[in-house]
Hints:
five-stranded antiparallel sheet
Amino acid sequence: MKRTPKRIKVIATKITGGLHSAKKTPCQDFYHYACSGNKLVAVVSDGAGSAKYGKIGAKIVCETLVNVLINTPLKHTEEAVKKAIETARGRLLIHRLNKSKSVEEILNFSATVVGVVYHKNKGIFFHIGDGAGIAVHNGAEAMKYTISRPANGHFSCETYFYTMRNWRECLRFTTVKKAEALFLMTDGVTDFALNADMRGLKNGFIEPINRYLKEEPNKLKALKALNNTLDTKQARKLNSDDKTFLWAGL
């Protein structure tokens, strides 16, 4: 696991879904994060199952966004996100697996994007497609939160990717203030965390996970507990997709 400053604690995992395990194919999700002082940048991405190189597309966009945003002032986040995604698309354009070096072929690397930048009690989620970002706020007797919700197409099985020509129209930003914890997740986890309308949190998932991860000082023990929660027999039955989950205690 990555080493982070004591002021920011990050626990993250990705778990191969039941369908991929049955077919003996690797997890298509990816995550990446970095901390600099009291600044956090984190991104998770779900490589499209229908895309031949979705895992590569997910890795490239996560790494590119984190590398750019960790050195970008918060006030310039939106423009920096757009430039970073353009850079990631450019990397796909010249990738050795893009045989024709065409814009059309970068769809073979299709992946979603859910990320966050947070610094000095202020932050911003950036989002293309499904998955979700959740901020749990300070000083609330009852847990209060901000959600960057999933976005799908006309059908629930459709979503949006940063490899699409109209990706800018699909890019959304949600501001966050005074958070005590941040969550990022791919769509393999959203069914456990969010209500059916994706507007609120389900009981018994985010709150106990947040409480446990915040109080457990041993990161390896915390990671093991998180993996056990996300990879139970019941969890695999409820959702057989890959599952990526990132928690940051601020």
